[in-house]
Amino acid sequence: MTSLFEYAPAPESRSIVDIAPSYGLFIDGEFVDGTGEPFKTVNPATEEVLTEVSAASEADVDRAVRAARRAFEKTWGPMRPADRGKYLFRIARLLQERAREFAVLESLDNGKPIRESRDVDIPLAAAHFFYHAGWADKLEHAGLGPAPKPLGVAGQVIPWNFPLLMLAWKVAPALATGNTVVLKPAETTPLTALLFAEVCRQADLPPGVVNIVTGAGGTGRAVVEHDDVDKVAFTGSTEVGRSIARAVAGTRKKLTLELGGKAANIVFDDAPIDQAVEGIVQGIFFNQGHVCCAGSRLLVQESIHDEVIASLQRRIGTLRVGDPLDKNTDIGAINSAEQLARIRELSDIGEAEGAQRWQPACELPDRGYWFPPTVFTDVSPAHRIARDEVFGPVLSVLTFRTPDEAVAKANNSTYGLSAGIWSEKGSRILKIADQLRAGVVWANTFNKFDPTSPFGGYKQSGYGREGGRHGLAAYLKGADQ
Amino acid sequence: MIGNDRLAVRKTYKLYVNGAFPRSESGRTYEATDAKGHFLANVAQASRKDARDAVVAARGAFPKWSAATAYNRGQVLYRVAEVMEGRHLQFCEEVAHGEGLSASKARAAVDAAIDRWVWYAGWTDKLAAVLGSANPVAGPYFDFSLPEPTGVVAVLAPQQSSLLGLVSVLAPVLATGSTAVVVTSKDRPIPAVTLAEVLATSDVPGGVVNLLTGDAGELGPWLAEHADVDAIDLTGAPAGRAMELEREAAGTIKRVIRPPATEPDWTADPGLSRMTPFLETKTVWHPMGV
């Protein structure tokens, strides 16, 4: 497809970030070397090695947990709640002050477009701290018991798709409720968490309140299985979620899981097509589709199928895939070679099972991990691409004739994280929203997030909520909601 | 039990599945005795197949029960209390025998059990107001969160408190709009069978509650791993088996209530603690504009 507009490159300068040649762990307020095998983190857009990062061994994790326990008992736990809140306000402000630096670093380490890290990830991360800061001295008003008490030490394991934002979703409510934290960032995206450690120092956060242990699965396991951890919070794949639920079985540990999804995005024949197409694009191509709540199953009413697909293809043809630091880029790099391999594998299976693959003509950079925006039509509900989470820029299109069929197909999934509805009819939206078995329903919008708004799944998309009043319960004794 | 010389007509104690009273498909029964070991009845011993049938029934009943208005569910739960009241003497006798309680203690337990239904009946149409929210998001959207039932809940009922304990774990499942598959106290199953007869005559739709007399140790693993069960309450799990059951439940990311170290005091105010684990929170966004 010929491009309507020619764009000159508009790269964001990376000079604002200063990446050290190597990084340690952040334990008890200090950067220390880990005793595990160090690993490299790369820029997925270029395969350039950004830096080398310490891996935390079991012994390192133990040190971090002990530091967190000490801080819980000596400083953070006994502190006046209003002062805990003030620290969180400080952190929120520091994130805002250093937002550009965080955004560039996030795009470098993750591969996401600067437009998204700058306009979504980092502002929302700051907003999460600002929101939760205010809760710190108001917990007795949260409807979670007359004198809610923190659990103690929270072990948190987060994914690579929204590194700093997922950190904020985990750390902010934990600290606001009086817990201390040992957090393991994803192996492929540790850098903004380590920069966050620096923010904690600038905020004069007492040592041990936040500890960051980088590493791979083994480090995460050590965090989850540590005897002195009172709370485990995990965001990631359903497969790992299962193993974590098994690992904490029979312990006192409180667990919340935010796992995979295969969201249905339902477009009715009365929907405003142009807006719906924008929503479909936003639903599946936001963050390269590395979104657990991505609208990866498009359910379109049969009568408008051809019109929607034609319009969708036209729109996808204008998306710009490439340099994440270019301010005009819509779709950045796939986060890792492993993830790219999985996306390719599932897409090939989609074709082999009989679905029709469509991709726009787009030039991909020679180096780095790239996958073009992809639409599969003629998808049946039994196809792997209609059932498995691809976690990439791959949309599967199915059709329906009646609202009942739309609901049945939407709910035909082991997941239940999110869903979308496009219709101009209010009563229909409310009815369908009621019938969908999903934790977040976006009607005439998609992929919107806010710290005041509880987020989390039904079924095998996990349990517990993050955000809002509901999210506090995950970090308080006795409070289940 | 009848004071004249008329020979009593004894009851056959069966399961309660999908609104009917079948025997176990396995043909098995076991002896229920009173607290002193005297024979009370041969009770159906539910099998794995019975448990699976019960899950099918509970799943089938879920769409309608969960979609019933909160007011309607509240009235149904209140109706259970009304019908139980009519069987008060029978329950007192059965609890006294099964649990070895004095008449006054048995009576207190039955009173509390009936009152617990009333308490939960009053909750059905308050949960959304107490647990829901309008969320002030930073943008032109109306955004609200509501509690919704999780689906099919497997309940391993307490082993000691055969009626009050049973009602205390069952009523919250129904109040929140989920449906239940309950394994009753193994050694004290008689009040549960009578409760099934109450439920069958209280406007509780068939399949919403399924009561299996039998061994939680035998049936628990099947329910914990069953892919069409959304949550499991391990309160009555046999000693030392809870960890294994929780691990089984992890395979399908079930919501789990862990068992307390010892059976709780069922007369205490339960608060929301037995309802929130079986509630999901759904958040809905819609743009605002003209």
Automatic annotation (TrEMBL), chain A:
<dbReference type="InterPro" id="IPR016163">
    <property type="entry name" value="Ald_DH_C"/>
</dbReference>
<dbReference type="InterPro" id="IPR016161">
    <property type="entry name" value="Ald_DH/histidinol_DH"/>
</dbReference>
<dbReference type="Pfam" id="PF00171">
    <property type="entry name" value="Aldedh"/>
</dbReference>
<feature type="domain" description="Aldehyde dehydrogenase">
    <location>
        <begin position="31"/>
        <end position="476"/>
    </location>
</feature>
<dbReference type="InterPro" id="IPR016162">
    <property type="entry name" value="Ald_DH_N"/>
</dbReference>
<comment type="similarity">
    <text>Belongs to the aldehyde dehydrogenase family.</text>
</comment>
<protein>
    <submittedName>
        <fullName>Aldehyde dehydrogenase (Acceptor)</fullName>
    </submittedName>
</protein>
<dbReference type="InterPro" id="IPR029510">
    <property type="entry name" value="Ald_DH_CS_GLU"/>
</dbReference>
<dbReference type="InterPro" id="IPR015590">
    <property type="entry name" value="Aldehyde_DH_dom"/>
</dbReference>
<feature type="active site">
    <location>
        <position position="258"/>
    </location>
</feature>
<keyword id="KW-0560">Oxidoreductase</keyword>
<dbReference type="GO" id="GO:0016620">
    <property type="term" value="F:oxidoreductase activity, acting on the aldehyde or oxo group of donors, NAD or NADP as acceptor"/>
</dbReference>
UniProtKB/TrEMBL annotation, chain B:
<dbReference type="InterPro" id="IPR016162">
    <property type="entry name" value="Ald_DH_N"/>
</dbReference>
<dbReference type="Pfam" id="PF00171">
    <property type="entry name" value="Aldedh"/>
</dbReference>
<dbReference type="GO" id="GO:0016491">
    <property type="term" value="F:oxidoreductase activity"/>
</dbReference>
<dbReference type="InterPro" id="IPR015590">
    <property type="entry name" value="Aldehyde_DH_dom"/>
</dbReference>
<feature type="domain" description="Aldehyde dehydrogenase">
    <location>
        <begin position="33"/>
        <end position="256"/>
    </location>
</feature>
<protein>
    <submittedName>
        <fullName>Aldehyde dehydrogenase family protein</fullName>
    </submittedName>
</protein>
<keyword id="KW-0560">Oxidoreductase</keyword>
<dbReference type="InterPro" id="IPR016161">
    <property type="entry name" value="Ald_DH/histidinol_DH"/>
</dbReference>
